[in-house]
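$ fold --in a.seq
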Amino acid sequence: MSPLAVIITMAAYFAVMLAIGWLSSKGADNQGFFNGGRKAPWWIVAIAMIGAPMSGVTYVSVPGMVGNGAAMGYMQMVLGFFVGYLIIAFVLTPVFFKMNLVSIYQYLEDRFGASSHKTGAWFFLISKVLGAAVRLYLVCVTLQLMVFGPLGLPFILNVAVSIAIVLLYTFKGGVKSVIWNDTLKTVCMVVSIVLAIIFIAKDMGMDFKGVAATIKDSSYSKMFFFDDFNHPEYFWKQFLAGIFTVVAMTGLDQDLMQRTLASRNQKDSRKNLITSGLLQIPVIFMFLCLGVLLYIYAAQKGITEVGDTLFPAVATSGFLPVVVGVLFVIGLVSCAYSAGGSALTALTTSFTVDILGAGKEGEEKLTSTRKKVHLGMALLMGVVIVVFYLLNTKSAIDAVYKLASYTYGPILGMFVFGIFCKKPVRDRWVPLVAVVAPVICLILQSNSERWFGGYTFSYELILINAMLTILGLCLLIKRKKDE
């Protein structure tokens, strides 16, 4: 696929995306930016939420991870994801709607105090900047190989263009623009995956039954791992990690909950969460099926790429019709830039409301502050992407979940303690607990095989991190004489 064809495809998609951003931002004020005015239909939010957690990392890295020894074991986490969505719908959502929150981290100030509020917001800020940068980084690397590199253009220009696009469509409309673009993203992503499977199967001379039989008989098709407790893919590790990862990375993430809080009421919010959580199971299963076919097809055609570069290599190899490359670009772009835009909106909201404490002044002052923060966060994301490029990060999906284990763990621990234990704590010491817990986790992960008979931590580390945070908060409980 030529660089010109990629540019034309991207330009067409960006035109549609920017048009949606412009239309959805008409008459938008600060409330429209932060929570969409709480007028979003639940079914639109549900469609948006199917694709919302899925970025360019999911689109490229999940099919590629099939060949890294995990096969289709990622589905173990996905089953845990659905349980996590139920917990968000029935435990967290009622709390957030009852308190009428703009930023979910305002709950921490109401429950513990100002230090806890700032701690939760800063951990989210670090988590989201790093996570969003990893996601956009992967897309920028792909575009560098397909467009910018062949044209002799530097990576930094690639990053500047990507950040500018994300900034443009969210600058005024905020979460209203994000929801509608996520709906478009979900449709594009699912259609591109389905058609990619069809075209690959057709080139391999297989019908639906042949595809199903090929995937089933493949060495990549193993889904459940119950044999070795010490193995990173062991079922209960992955399943429990899936539950708590979704609770932390969705339910306690301003980015994703900002969409849910844009629903009209708690009942609608619950419906969109359950619907989107259920539908994510077959969608991610399709990603993994595509991954199996990609590895088999690549072996037949002599394509040696693996992991994150496998899908782009096959899609643009020339063995398949040009439309497959076009579909790949549309799916990648829709995933990447919608995820980047929603992250930027959430970062702006959290920093403006939680860190700066804006909102108490007039509407005009709040608008000015929000726009400055929006620009600053965009610049920060761009800088972090360039840093990732210089560090040459390889496994994007693994990097995202490892980062989450360390940064979302303390947030998860604070919310769990706050909701299920009504005791007051010494608020000023909460930041120390939130820092010490990830440090202990890092020490445990570095020495686990030596200390625990060969046991290797996987993404369940987020649960250990949260438990250490809860333990630390228990030590900070105020006694009666302190009160």
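$ fold --in b.seq
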Amino acid sequence: MRIHLIKAREGGRAGGYVLRRLGALLVTMLAVSFLAFGAFSAISGSAASLRLGTQGTSEQAAALEAEMGLDRPLLARYGSWLLGFFTGDLGTSLSYRQGVGELLAGKAAVTLALSGLSFALIAALSLPLGLLSARLEGGPLDGLHTAFNQFCMAVPPFFTGILLSYVFGIALKLFTPGAFPGLDHPRQAARHLFFAALSIAIPRTAMTVRMLRGVITSELRRDYVRTALSRGQGRGAVLRRHVLRNALPPVVSFLAQTMAEIVAGGIVVEQVFGIPGLGRMLVASIGNRDYPVVQAIVVMLAFWVALAGTAADLVNARIDPRLRFSQAETGGPAA
């Protein structure tokens, strides 16, 4: 009976932690969306005047503002925009004269595919390379490995993208630089996206490997590791079974930050590879002063960052229940 009560209490704490994190995510999203809407409403001036151009009169601008609902109070316009954000109605682009949601749907799918592939490469490469780096510490190949890792961190993604485009695109003709085939051709699109994702993943993987190595080497100095080794367990087994579990929470948090930064890094890489994603659309919309499009993209990226942080907290709490229990007792954020 007591065991069942303890399990029920732990389950209740876990459920409460998840609800608190989801509630914090909702509040963050609402705050970010309101700030973005208010900021772009202030700096954009009259969207009606921008649409009419220099030839429009003040009477035409006033009539178009009334038609677009811009004569209503800010909170009323924000409420309508927020409702439209979750239903796909984000207003009308000033440059393309079509719905922002319709305009961004295909772009967001491409960016999501690029970001997902980049993160998959980082996660798949970082863990084995981090373990290898920790095992090489102090060995004859440690200096060479460290130098190569530093080199990978120092090279920016756009430069790596240019090299990959030249070698695999122009020289080996594995894909056509600047001619993205579209997601309707999955095989060709995956090949094109792979090299773009690789250019994003290389420096972030090197950073994650360096962090993972530092966390693992710190854990290896703890008493429980020496106890496990004294009992005859091999170093590799101790790394996999004990050290890695304790080293994962900070790495998961770092990967969540990486997930958020992938989109920012992808803006430049999309330009290099000619990928028609949100990055290229954002750059073009800023140049055209197409504020409804810029506003929607900024909010989407901010939501992505907040969602990545919340996902990291939930995964860390799953790996180490002490994190959610400590937050429940102190009322503060998880460590």
